[in-house]
Amino acid sequence: MTQLSLAYIFQHQKLLVDQNLQLPQVEKLASDLPIHHNDQVIARDLLEDEVIPEGYQLIPIRELIQTWSSHDFLQASRAVQLLEWRRNHKFCSHCGHATEIHPKEYAMVCPSCAYHQYPRVQPCVITIITKGNDEVLLAKSAHKHYGNMYGLIAGFVEVGETLEEAVQREAFEEVGVKLKNIRYMSSQPWPFPSNLMIAFHAEYDSGEIQLQLEEISDAQFFKFDQLPEIPFKGSIAHSMIMQVIENKSI
Questions:
Q1: Residue 181 and residue 202 in contact, taking contact as beta carbons nearer than 8 Å
Q2: pTM score, two decimals?
Q3: Beta-carbon contacts of residue 238 (< 8 Å; ≥ 6 apart)
Q4: CA-to-CA distance for 96 and 111, rounded, in angstroms?
């Protein structure tokens, strides 16, 4: 009897699941990517012209964050990032030759010049800034698709920069404040497209709020018991806010 594999089948950022949001089990193909080496969980691309199997649907992975367990979402995150990496590295960035996937490692190998291309992660800092014992700084994005939601200050780490320097720079660039007592909290893979969110707690030190208008439309300190709309449960931003205002583990 053929052994079936649990399959994370993606069409870009949408995942194939049944009506109960469960994954399909399929026969493994040579082109499938194992999520972890030597296991029966695989990742697979669903091409645009392929038919969606009866009883299944494509759901944006963002919609699964709030309903799936942390373990299941992290595994889906790993799957979609590995597929994105393979899709984007079909050719060698050194000589342009077509690449081949390494049989034992996550590496796209050039048979011409032997250059190896590995999955890349983009580090992003995300910071919850508090003032005193009962206020938190929240900011509203200038991008309309975020609606009226207020979130935390976040941004990519730049080349040659420490994480703590990135925290200070992003806060000053986006809202014009300086910070003190920067402390690491936790991290979360964020597959949009391949980020690692690194969470920090910092205290307000000085400066008046000055908005970077192309990024932020509003920012202010809110009392813990008077919060606006905040990021959804399952996101690291929501967990950080809850940890701080409830003084509990993330």
A1: yes
A2: 0.89
A3: 230, 231, 232
A4: 11
**Within 13 Å and on the Cβ side, how many CA atoms surround 225?**
1
SS (H, E, C) the chain: CCCEEEEEEEECCEEEEECCCCCCEEECCCCCEECCCCCCEEEEECCCCCCCCCCEEEEEHHHHCCCCCHHHHHHHHHHHHHHHHHHHCCECCCCCCECEECCCCCCEECCCCCCEECCCCEEEEEEEEEECCCEEEEEEECCHHHCCCEECEEEECCCCCCHHHHHHHHHHHHHCCEEEEEEEEEEEEECCCCEEEEEEEEEEEECCCCCCCCCEEEEEEEECCCCCCCCCECEHHHHHHHHHHHCCCC
**Pairing of β 216-223 and β 122-131:** unpaired
| pLDDT in single tens digits along all 250 residues of the chain | 678 999 999 998 999 999 999 999 999 998 999 998 767 899 999 999 999 999 999 999 988 988 899 889 999 999 999 999 999 999 999 999 999 999 889 999 999 999 999 999 999 999 999 999 999 999 999 987 778 999 999 999 999 999 999 999 999 999 999 999 999 999 999 998 899 999 999 999 999 999 999 999 999 999 999 999 999 998 999 999 999 999 854 4
At a CB cut-off of 8 Å and minimum separation 6, what does 47 contact?
A: 11
